[in-house]
Structures are given as C-alpha cells and as structure tokens.
Amino acid sequence: MLAIKTFGINYFPSSVSSLIIPSMGRNKLALKKIDNPSRRKITYSKRRDGIIKKATELSVLCDIDVGLLIFSPNGRLTTFSSNGRSYNPDVVNINSVHDAIAHQQFLNDAIQNIEKLTMEIFHEPIDLQKSGCFQVPPAATRDAHLTAEELVDGNGNWNPPQDDHQPKEAPLPVSPHLSLEYLRTQKHWNLQGRGQGSA
Amino acid sequence: MLAIKTFGINYFPSSVSSLIIPSMGRNKLALKKIDNPSRRKITYSKRRDGIIKKATELSVLCDIDVGLLIFSPNGRLTTFSSNGRSYNPDVVNINSVHDAIAHQQFLNDAIQNIEKLTMEIFHEPIDLQKSGCFQVPPAATRDAHLTAEELVDGNGNWNPPQDDHQPKEAPLPVSPHLSLEYLRTQKHWNLQGRGQGSA
DNA sequence: CGTGCTATTCTTAGTTA
DNA sequence: GTAACTAAGAATAGCAC
Q1: Where would I find the beta strands (DSSP E) of B3-147?
Q2: Where are the transmembrane segments (chains A, B) (predicted)?
Q3: Nucleotides on strand D with an atom closer than 7 A to protein CB?
C-alpha cells in the first residue's frame, strides 16, 4: 500500500500507440503478428538483440537498472538485467574505524541478501562471473499441457563479452543495489548480481 | 531445478559488447554514464520511450511476452509488460456444451490466478482497463536511508493510448497466458492483465 | 518539464552467399 | 540454419521554444 499509490496511472508514450509502421529495413511491416513462422523467428532474433542492446545502453548512459524478460516464440525465456548502480561510498567521509566497519557491514548484508534471494529463486548459487543475460529452457516456461509447440531453438548461446567496461579489479563481486530491498520485498524480479554482460 | 538447468549459459549478442558508440542523433555519444544530470534525464526519457516502443513491437510482431523494469535516475520504477499471447481457442473444435464449459472453466481459473497474484503483489485489485506500463513512486523503490537523492520527476504520466489494435469488444478482460503458470511459480514477475497499452 | 525540429547515426527486413 | 550485406526507415542528440 505504501508503495503502490500511483498504481494504475496510465503511463505510455503516445508515440507508441499511434504507430502503425514499426519497422525499418527494406520494407515496411505492419504492427501485427508475423504469420510466417520462420520469418517471425528471424525477426525475433534480430529484435531481441536490438532491445537487449538498447537496455544495456540505457542502463549505462543513465546509470540505472533495467530488467528485461522475453519469452521467445518457442517459449524460451531470455532474461536480462543490467549491472545496477555501483555502490560508490564517499570515501572522503570514511574517517573512522567505525565508519569503515559500518560500510563493510552494509556491504556484507547486501551480499547476503543477494545470495539468499538467488537461492530462493534458483536453488543454487549463481556464478557472478557470468551473464547479465541468459536463457532458461522452454520446458520451464510453460505448462505440461502446453508443450505441443515446437521446442527447437536449441543453441542461442552467445559469446561472453570480453571488453567489459567495468574494471575487473573491482574489489567486490556484487554491487549493493539501491533497489535491492524493493526487489526482495516484491519478489517479482531477481537481481542477477554483477555480471560481465553490460558492456 | 527442473527449470533452470541451462542457468549460467552466457547469452549475449556480441554486437552489444563490441559497441563503443551507442548513439545516433547529432553527435556520437560514448557508452558511459552521462555526467550532466539534466542531459541524463532527457536521454533517459527519450530512450525509455524508445525501449518501451521496441518491447511493444517485439511482443506484437512475434506474439510473445515481454516484460521490462526500468529504474529512472531518480529511483522511480517504470514497468512494462506486454499483453501476452492471446488465448485463441479453436472455436471450430468447440462442438459440445461440455467443451464450452471446459473452456469457460479454463478462463475463469486463469482470471482467478491473475487476480490472486495481483492481490499478493499489490494488495489491491488492478484496473484491467489500464496500463501495460506504469510507474510506482520513488518511495517504493528505495530504502529509507537511501532517500537522500532528489525525488523530483513528479509527473511522468502519459495519455492512455486510444488506438488499441486489440478489439475492445473482446469478451474477456484478461487473456490466459502461456507463461502465467511459470510466472506465478517463480514469483519474480507479475502479469498486469490485458491493458490497452500494447498498440 | 514538455514539444517540435533536423542532422546524423542506428536498426533491421529482405536478400545473398 | 547462419553470416554478411544493404537500402529503407526509425531513433535520437542537440536545439529552440
């Protein structure tokens, strides 16, 4: 209740709703489901890459968190989450052992929160060196009675980015997150820790 | 466990990681945090709109579900979720009262699932006529001890789209969703029902 | 804080190899 | 299927208001 007072406010750019022609490339394309399945998959792949790129850029340029869930035409789930705001304590203001301990405690608490949340969701620890973006298999994304659809799309694995703009020598594997508490409380989004993904 | 076997697979378009120049417009722009706060906010607004548009297009063109979480530079959360795949029963195959009742039961169950989930998360019913995209106030997105940041950004409310491509005369206010069960199980994403937003 | 403009760059549908 | 190419059109940075 405290949180959701503005829930229900319509929030949608008018430009979105007024568009009839969403495409580019050689031909225009109506804003409707692409009937041809193979064309649909091709468009899916290209646009999925595009939107992940946009999400990455938005998160970096504006120093914000962006999370993205995409269910493919085959029911495979791709998720993306940006690295999140870095924890940048004002080192100038750490002038005592007490302050230093307080910061350390804060960071430890944040790390434990992340680990706990991760275990709740995935039942196994995450590898923090991996993925700001990964897939789960189609089987996880649908009911047993809905598996009739083809479950192809076996290998969508991409190379991990190697040109991480975030310094590898960062002392902490995770960055405590301004939104973490909210995310933990709401339990409808999971933080994936600081991956290498958001280049 | 059943679901997350491929967890950890790196899944990231190489084009994302290799980019250094994410911008367009008049000048190029380095893929780094925009230092000027007012410029950062402007870029945020424009690109937020852009990515929501992209998410909408992707969901419609490929008939898939897309969810998006964006924390603004001011800590305000904007969420978006596509309408999801429509429930399109093969009417030709409804040849008996029994079949019809079964379909009706399925839909009722789905609606109740959605309402239950919504109540769990928001503690109040959602207005299904509104929003595929909305904001919650900054206060909801941060800890009490982290509210030092300016909490401006008062009115980001946009006009509800009026040119919904989905027929208003659709008999059901919500569309049972292939991914709903997964979402309900995982509890890290919430379905917002069928809004008018995904034009 | 928006809205509108425009030059410039980016995205991507269709195609080819 | 995948990877590269390219033309057409979309997105947007910087301005002006």
Answers
A1: 66-71, 77-81, 133-136
A2: none
A3: 1-2, 6-15
